[in-house]
């Protein structure tokens, strides 16, 4: 019996399973929350897969440790709750990976509303 890809895969997942290759990434990408744990990995993956420019947009500046210096990566410090800063960061982008968020139970309630709700509306 030959086992094929799961019937529960999306068309993109099925393509990857059948061909063993990923589709090309967009040329210009923005990653909000780009200096965070997941954001850093997404930024690196986009560059490794051929993105020409990746904007890492985060309120936390890039540190020397753990961040990749690459000519295709532009680090922009900005607040996701600032509509003008978000608008400026996404200009010319082909896609946006929105990963900026306040997480964990230790922040004031207003921060979750400002970052997670209003920040998402800005994107």
UniProtKB/TrEMBL annotation:
**GO terms, biological process:** steroid biosynthetic process
Listed GO molecular functions?
oxidoreductase activity, acting on the CH-OH group of donors, NAD or NADP as acceptor
Q: Which UniProt keywords apply?
A: Oxidoreductase
Record-annotated 3-beta hydroxysteroid dehydrogenase/isomerase domain positions: 30-123
InterPro entries, per database record: 3Beta_OHSteriod_DH/Estase, Lipid_A_modif_metabolic_enz, NAD(P)-bd_dom_sf
Q: PANTHER family given for it?
A: BIFUNCTIONAL POLYMYXIN RESISTANCE PROTEIN ARNA, SHORT CHAIN DEHYDROGENASE_REDUCTASE FAMILY 42E, MEMBER 2
**UniProt family annotation:** Belongs to the 3-beta-HSD family.
Protein name according to UniProt: 3-beta hydroxysteroid dehydrogenase/isomerase domain-containing protein
